[in-house]
Structure formats: C-alpha cells, structure tokens
Backbone:
C-alpha cells in the first residue's frame, strides 16, 4: 500500500479532541498513565502547540458524519535547551508508509526554529522494536544512561 498524501491533514493537537487522542494512543501501544487525562493532554498541547501534531485521514465522501480519523500523532516538548519526543504513534495500517517519518520531520522542523540543539526520546521496553525506525532517523541509542522516575 502506498500512502495517498492528498488524503491526509495535519493539525496542531490543541485543535483536536484530547479524548480521541488518548483513545488513539491506547489503541496504538502508548502507555497511558494517570497524567494522560483529557485536561492534561489539552494543557500540554497548548504549551507548545506546534510541537503537538496530529495526522488525520480526511473523510471520504461516503462517510456519514464527515469526521476525520486520527492516524498518527507526535507530541514534542521543550525545556528551553533540549527537545523531547513524548509520544509518537502511528495507526498500524499506516506504519511503514512514511507517516511516522513525516510526523518526526514536522516536529523536528519546529524544534529547529526554536534553536533546539538536541532531541531526546524514551522507548519503553515493550516497544523496543521501534528502535530501528529511530536509528534510521538519525537517533543514536544511548547505553550510558539509566532513567529513574518518581510518581508524585
């Protein structure tokens, strides 16, 4: 299958329904925590709106409600020096067609405009198979760090 780019729209997350974004993540192997509430996702989307991008399949003329379907998201964050990819998700049937790369290109473009020097991302062990994808995008796997987290 080849992706028909004319059938895809990109929007900032702040203009998207946060509940639908969370549902999309749940269906596409993103671990949801207690901070992934609609209010928190909406708030995050408003902080750096151009770093939170949602890809939609345009509705077909036969779609009864004309509603767009989420097929991918990338959520970037910025700490004033470094960029972070919080969540990247692509619907299964759209994987390996360039959508993930396009989403990453869009968010990296925004990071460059902000003067970001380096981008970090974290891959959960249950999703380690995406490492090859990130390597092809120029990310290097680090073995010199151990991540510690504390839930408050």
Residues:
């Amino acid at each position: 299958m080849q992706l028909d780019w004319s059938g895809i729209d990109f929007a900032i997350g702040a203009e998207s329904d946060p509940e639908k974004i969370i549902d999309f993540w749940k269906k596409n192997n993103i671990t949801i925590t207690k901070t992934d509430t609609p209010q928190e996702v909406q708030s995050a989307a408003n902080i750096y709106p151009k770093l939170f991008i949602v890809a939609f399949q345009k509705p077909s003329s036969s779609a009864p409600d004309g509603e767009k379907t989420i097929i991918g998201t990338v959520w970037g964050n910025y700490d004033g020096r470094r960029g972070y990819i919080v969540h990247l998700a692509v619907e299964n049937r759209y994987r390996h067609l360039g959508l993930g790369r396009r989403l990453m290109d869009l968010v990296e473009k925004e990071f460059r405009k902000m003067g970001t020097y380096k981008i970090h991302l974290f891959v959960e062990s249950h999703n380690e198979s995406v490492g090859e994808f990130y390597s092809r995008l120029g990310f290097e796997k680090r073995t010199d760090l151990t991540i510690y987290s504390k839930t408050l």
Summary: The radius of gyration is 16 Å. The chain has a mean pLDDT of 92. The first strand starts at residue 8 and ends at 12. The chain has one domain: 5-136.
